[in-house]
Amino acid sequence: MQQFEFTAWSLYTGPSNLQSIYENSSWVVGRWDGINGNTSAAEIKKDIDARIDILINAFQRALPNYKTYNRFFIVPEFFFRCQQGPYPYVKVDGVDYPVEYIQKTLKGRLSAIIPNDNNYYSFFSGSVLTSNVSDYDQFLSSVAVTERLQQLNNCLADDTDLMRKMSSNQHTTASWHRELFNRTKKTPQNKSVNSSDALNDFMKVVRANPLCTVRNRGVYLFFNRSMMAEMQSFICEKQYESTVDLTMGVFNGNRIEHGGMITEWMANYPSISILGGDKQTDGLSTNARFTPEFLWNADIGLEICLDHRKQRLRRTVDMCIQNGADADNYPILHQIISSGGMQILDYAVAADRSSRIFNADGCDKIYKVYGDESTVILNGEAGKFTGITTGVYNKSVQSKWTGKDGQTYYSHSQLAFCTNESKVEGFNNALGLNNEKAETYTGTPDTPSNTLTDLYEAQIFSLNGTTDLFGATTGELHYYSDVSGD
Questions:
Q1: Do the Cβ atoms of 319 and 306 come closer than 8 Å?
Q2: Where are the beta strands (DSSP E) in 266-391?
Q3: Rounded to a whole number, what is the distance in angstroms from the first to the last CA of the chain?
Q4: Fewer CB atoms near the end CB (10 Å): N or C, the chain?
Q5: Do the beta carbons of residue 94 and residue 44 sit within 8 Å?
Q6: Residue 1 has pLDDT above 80, yes or no
Q7: Which residues neighbour 137 within 8 Å (Cβ) at sequence distance 6 or greater?
């Protein structure tokens, strides 16, 4: 029997009132949910503490389900943010900035409830959005933001059909899946080439000249109370920013306004290099690979959303000190994907043979062909699925939610295993998506199987809660366990 169990907290973590700027656009408007009345330290602390409270409650609900030695609890991207999007650069408790405060508080709260049962607990907080701006009111009223907002609206005003739709509120419900920003240009239906290209080109210019910096990080905690004096923690940081990590603002008649939020056209992520590998080398590292105590010569790899599609972990397979890396990048025993609109992709699987890939997503459906609405599993309904999606044989659960705004939203989870014979070697940048792929099944695409994956089944536990922190409910837990010994 496999001694690994995985729980995903499946809830919608994206913005409410989500709409595309124009049909088939990957640029969206929407509002983040939160309970902070303003961005003072006290109000930010109130919002963070409330999110930690429901996170601890969800974890406590999961605890009685576990039966084996290695117990995972994974939360989606965008779990921690406020009504303005990223938390501001303020000391929440007079001592710690948001990520450090969340890290310290979660360690204390989890240490108080994880039992002394000689089992290993792995916990990921979901991601935390933060910025380097302390005073949002001053920043959002600045000359630089005002000028850039006018440039954005001037760009959109070139499309008279778009302006008509904006004036009459004829907007399209948005999809939150991760479009590639540099994808091949195409002409959306009823949309001129010049106008869509102008907006995309404008966004490239402003992304290269950000007015502020946003970071997307999460806290990974590892603990065995019987064998460890203290819980280990690792902070992992997202490398690639998608077109929907923030919104473009909100519609106001025939204009877009920032709506008091940090938006896509203001911000950019800091540059992260993996030329020396992606292994955490000290307590200040925020890389995607790390080796908790007792794991020895194996890595846990954690990708936040678009990092997976960009093959972040796959690119550093086999990198080692002998060949010039900063540290040895060990074979990945657990590849964890915390996302807001991503799923397991065959060309991005970096896990070692017989190892696990687990995805907890807070924003999208599961596609057989990624992003193709005609290939959504289960006809877009909630439920369980076993089969191949995006080239990966997996067990999955799709959740469907009606938001407080009346719109339909999704979240999901997936579990896959590499086969006992699977092997991927070092990455060739010239081959890109055509590098050697890991094997997640044997047989044919029509009759796939994997002796490891087939041992698992998912159970769904509803949390039946309402919250002002997110756009829909408090979600449900997807618990995956090996049922062969039951």
A1: no
A2: 267-268, 289-290, 299-304, 332-339, 351-361, 383-389
A3: 10
A4: C
A5: no
A6: no
A7: 39
